[in-house]
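Predict the 3D structure for this chain.
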Amino acid sequence: LEADLHRHYPHADAHHLTEAADTAILAVVRRPAGYDPGRLALPAFLRMVARRDLINLTDAEARKRRGRIPW
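Done. Predicted structure below.
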């Protein structure tokens, strides 16, 4: 999962890649009803969730940086 994220987002922070992959897996473990095998295979679903998580992490980091004053 991390390797897939790295292929699609090669310039992303390594920590964010790991966090997005972990969060995607935990989301399915915590709430298995959110996954519908009739719509998408599990690996494809996990990739989709991890990519969204990575985008959300990147956006959140950008919002934090906008509010900082450079020293």
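The CA atoms of residues 16 and 58 lie 8 Å apart.
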